[in-house]
Amino acid sequence: MAKRLSFAALRQQELYKNNIQGTIPAELGNLKSLISLDLYNNNISGTIPSSLGKLKSLVFLRLNDNKLTGPIPRDLVGISSLKVVDVSNNDLCGTIPTSGPFEHIPLNK
């Protein structure tokens, strides 16, 4: 059996409604094939890692209904494939990006 598992080809990460606590690992930004990241309705705290901006194939980003704080990382603006973003019901602050994929995405505030 392999000593180390590789999730490089992982396309969907659906861990919603699991009462997950802690922070979003910056290492998720290394999952280059990820198209869907669903972590909504948990108890995740901390900030949204800027490393998620490396997920150039990401289409769906649902982080709503958690305890996230801080601003939406500007690095997410560079994800041209991003179509659905939901960060509602958190304690985010700052401005919502208005360029790149955020320009035409209906954001739930």
Automatic annotation (TrEMBL):
Pfam families: LRR_1, LRR_8. GO terms for cellular component: membrane. It is a single-pass membrane protein. It comes from the Eukaryota. Its main location: membrane. It is found in: Membrane. InterPro entries: Leu-rich_rpt, LRR_dom_sf. Coiled coil: none annotated. Keywords: Glycoprotein, Leucine-rich repeat, Membrane, Repeat, Signal, Transmembrane, Transmembrane helix. Belongs to the RLP family. PANTHER family: SOMATIC EMBRYOGENESIS RECEPTOR KINASE 1 (PTHR47988). This is Leucine-rich repeat protein 1-like. It comes from Prunus avium (Cherry).
